Amino acid sequence: MASGGIGDRIEALVEEEQRLWADSAHLDESGHARLREIREELDQCWNLLRRRRADPNAPATPPHVPDPPNDLDGPEPEPPHLEHGVHGEDEPAPDPDVPRDIP
Measured between alpha carbons, how far is residue 55 from residues 46, 52, 64 in Å? Predict the structure, then answer.
């Protein structure tokens, strides 16, 4: 879809949305569903138009790019240390040679 075609589609969707909103007092469930569909399609069209303005050769559907790992989270958290008395006395220490009186 060319940029002109996207603009025309956006205009048509906006006109339909305005017509439905003008008659919103008499809308049934299917009319409300159509309004939701229009909003979703408008979002997609605007996103495509932005991508096309940034790169005229942009595909209609953007490629899936996985989220990068979040380095701010740090490594996996360490389990609570049993030797520091965090757990109850019924649970065994991770190493029998570790003294239990470590602060």
Answer: 14, 5, 17
Q: What is the pLDDT of residues 47-76, one digit of tens each?
A: 889 988 888 887 878 788 888 877 776 666
CB 49 within 8 A of CB 10: yes
CA geometry: angle at 46 spanning 43 and 47, to 5°? Answer: 85
Q: For the chain, what are the domain ranges?
A: 3-54
Q: Encoding tokens for residue 34?
A: 């159509």
Query: Got the DSSP string for the chain?
Result: --HHHHHHHHHHHHHHHHHHHHTGGG--HHHHHHHHHHHHHHHHHHHHHHHHHH-TT--SSPPP-PPPP-GGG-SPPPPPPGGGT-S-TTSPPS-TTS-TT--
What length does the chain have? Answer: 103
